Amino acid sequence: MRNVFPVLIVASFASVVVTTTRQSVCTLSYVKQSLPTSNFGLTIDPASVVVSSVTNASVNSQTFFPSAHFDYCSVTFAYSHDGLNDSVHVMYWLPASDKFQNRYLSTGGGGFAISSGIGSLPGGIMYGAVAGTTDGGFGSFNTQSDAVFLVKNGTVNLESLYMFGYEAHHELSLLGKALTKQFFNMSSTKLYSYYQGCSEGGLDSRLQKIQRYGNEWDGAITGAPAFCFSHQQVQHLYSNVVEQTLGYYPPPCELEKIVNETIAFCDPLDGKTDGVVSRSDLRKLHFNLNSTIGKPYSCPARPPKSKRQFPNFSPSPAQNGTVSAEGGAVVAAITDSLRDSKGRRVYFSYQPAAGFVDAQTQYNAATNSWGLSVRSIMYPNMSFNDSTTALNDWYRLFLVPGAGHCGPSTAQPNGPWPQTSLAVLIDWVENGIEPTTLDATVLQGKHLGEQQQICGWPLRPYWPNDETSMECQYDQASTDSWLYDLDAFKLPVY
Ligand SMILES: *[C@@H]1O[C@H](CO)[C@@H](O)[C@H](O)[C@H]1NC(C)=O
Ligand SMILES: *[C@@H]1O[C@H](CO)[C@@H](O)[C@H](O)[C@H]1NC(C)=O
Ligand SMILES: *[C@@H]1O[C@H](CO)[C@@H](O)[C@H](O)[C@H]1NC(C)=O
Ligand SMILES: *[C@@H]1O[C@H](CO)[C@@H](O)[C@H](O)[C@H]1NC(C)=O
Ligand SMILES: *[C@@H]1O[C@H](CO)[C@@H](O)[C@H](O)[C@H]1NC(C)=O
Ligand SMILES: *[C@@H]1O[C@H](CO)[C@@H](O)[C@H](O)[C@H]1NC(C)=O
Ligand SMILES: *[C@@H]1O[C@H](CO)[C@@H](O)[C@H](O)[C@H]1NC(C)=O
Ligand SMILES: *[C@@H]1O[C@H](CO)[C@@H](O)[C@H](O)[C@H]1NC(C)=O
Ligand SMILES: *[C@@H]1O[C@H](CO)[C@@H](O)[C@H](O)[C@H]1NC(C)=O
Ligand SMILES: [Ca+2]
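A: This is the predicted complex of the input protein with 2-acetamido-2-deoxy-beta-D-glucopyranose.
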């Protein structure tokens, strides 16, 4: 099992594997002598260590990093928890010595995947960081936590659950930082440590880990955190519950039409007609869903595709019709979000103009529903402005206009995407440069490559005069529309 990983790496980048003079430290013997020796309650299996040197690997521009080419040393090994007969695999990519910039990065996964395999590692290497990923002990880097959730039917595998929740990433960082220090002879030099992940990768467990192990990282990027996971999963079911309760199952084309109409109405509200709803809050205040009722829609048939190549693709017939009152009512109920029988809110829903993916047959796309649990928990007795100022000292929220879940949205292609957040975070941590706005790039469509800025909460973007100069403005009604009260629960929900 363990020997497949380096092969994967080489194959995916079609790189030449050679050991150069410059990377002469990328050898089995040097890595073995650099392995962590501290007693973390973990035992590394020396026979499991695999090392390979890769030169001039190239990656194309992706959601979380721009295109680049670089050399790296790939190291994988397995460890077990003392007293348990288990086996957890970790993989680290180490930059060439002359590119190393005293940084370490742990990378996260999404959904029930604890990591993105090698997919996120280039994003660390290109900033001179050692980048690490873990399999959580689930059996392989492709095995997700739900596959090992049960020991037997009815019996939860608590070891796997804790690993998924917080242990595996804690250990990944412990071992990765120790390896980095030894490998690069750092002794007393400060090693800056980071985390980057999205969705589950930003999950409350990762936020929770920041609470549990406060000194573990110097900075973390938790994109679209899937926080209050249990409640959030229920929210995912809610769209179908609405459809069942109201007895109306809107054709996907009808929902798409409602989304398109919402985008068309809301796009100019931010002062710039660019196909991007930068102020979804203004839709909440100004858009009446009922205005879509009666609008004609039509979508072509989706013919069947190869099951092998497109396992998640389901064919559908051509659809046409007009938006119905029932369709409008379903969308209104979904947007209002899940409430208990007394009308108290359980979780928040999609931001307006997001696609209604849960309402359809597949899960996962646009949410943009970032939450605010942190401010009121940390600073319960401060005014909104004071607590926000205190919070911004160490925690900043950036609402990405028109984005999908953990990536740009095809429905709003001109929207900006923060591709280089790690560089911004590094500048904040290492150079004290506070990100009042976040650098972003348009990653698709006719404005591909355009640089934009994203406002830091609670300020919101607005183009007051012409479409070229954006202001980050404070808007009380907007702020209020973002403040949710999860009052269905007596205790704070984490
Ligand atoms: C590395 O690869 C890039 C293309 O991916 C190429 O342009 C460049 O010349 C290569 N550099 C070296 C040192 O081989
Ligand atoms: C430990 O696990 C290995 C492989 O999974 C197995 O071969 C071995 O018998 C186990 N040892 C004990 C003491 O359970
Ligand atoms: C698991 O247990 C439940 C409850 O005993 C039973 O209904 C179900 O069929 C079992 N599932 C499998 C896959 O054995
Ligand atoms: C660390 O020091 C050892 C001993 O001096 C040396 O052989 C090795 O190349 C150094 N490692 C790096 C990454 O420079
Ligand atoms: C929604 O807008 C997209 C992008 O303009 C378009 O491709 C799609 O056909 C529209 N859908 C409907 C139902 O009008
Ligand atoms: C939309 O129409 C429904 C049904 O006629 C009505 O109950 C609801 O109040 C309307 N919503 C708004 C915001 O006008
Ligand atoms: C809608 O579909 C029906 C039945 O396939 C067809 O007769 C009609 O022409 C279509 N209308 C539009 C506007 O495409
Ligand atoms: C907030 O105020 C309440 C009531 O005055 C007090 O009991 C609580 O300790 C305060 N909390 C913090 C974090 O200061
Ligand atoms: C909060 O701060 C904003 C500017 O950031 C200001 O416009 C607003 O008046 C302040 N509100 C209160 C209640 O002080
Ligand atoms: Ca706009």
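The first strand starts at residue 42 and ends at 59. The two ends are 37 Å apart (CA to CA).
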